Amino acid sequence: MLFAVRKVNFSSVGSAARSSLIFSPTITSILKDPATRVTVLTGAGISAESGIPTFRGPEGYWTIGSNVYMPEDVATLAMFKQHPREVWEWYLYRLGVCLHARPNAGHHALAEMEKLLADRFTLITQNIDNLHIRAGNSLQRTFQIHGNIHFTRCSHACSAALQRLDRKLTLKRKQKQLTENDLRLLRCPYCDAWLRPHVLWFDECYDETHFRFESSIKIAAQTDLLIIVGTSGATALPNHVVSLARQYQSTIIDINPEENPFSASARSSPGGMFIKQASSGVLTALAECCRTLHAHIGTKGPSDQ
Ligand SMILES: [Zn+2]
Questions:
Q1: What is the pLDDT of residue 172?
Q2: What is the 8-class DSSP label of residue 169?
Q3: Residue 267 pLDDT more than 70?
């Protein structure tokens, strides 16, 4: 088989990624076969390579009144109902961090993979920072299962419609208060209730309308190759996606600088691999592999297929 084992040439990628990496024959066969599906599941690790913290550590602690709250307390519907101003101040601080970050080589590699694989490709992301969309992945094939910090919706659900956050809102430094103008811009234009960030809070459930829950389950059960990037499975839906991929004997690649609960699943899957590295170099290599296979298929006549 011509592409059974492909050694990736890193000479054209950044120095940080220069090493040799061999994808298994199963992986190259799946990438080459136009009848297969490829799903990528991303988490905080890929955003960390763009300088965005998880906000689960001290960078996410928030003072409200005389109390200091942990991020898992602030990012809740219960806290929003009690302290909407302060929760918005926290999200506008986080939005500022996201806007200052840029998509990295891993994000761009995934955008290229989507262009090459088209309808065979789905991206399921836990990240709310919008970096995948900024890099060029489509909204149609990107399931943002925890929402997107750039969007808002009515907290009274008078409509399910999403609105992009008004650019006139003041981006916040840590613990800065909303202005009167900010307060006006954070009101629903239809019913005057508070707008809320379009994110899934810790005390809320996944749904299809806002978070593509059923679509993610369906894709996970159909995928031939699942690529897990920078996530260790702290939340329910990513765990479910990986467990479905295992159940249906999909090939799994786990890319993570640290051993994590998904590493063993990847190693034991057919032709699967745990790649203990940061994601940008590995994803660049995968995109290069797709590009080469795509070019090869494109140059072959029908009788060669
Ligand atoms: Zn409303």
A1: 66
A2: S
A3: yes
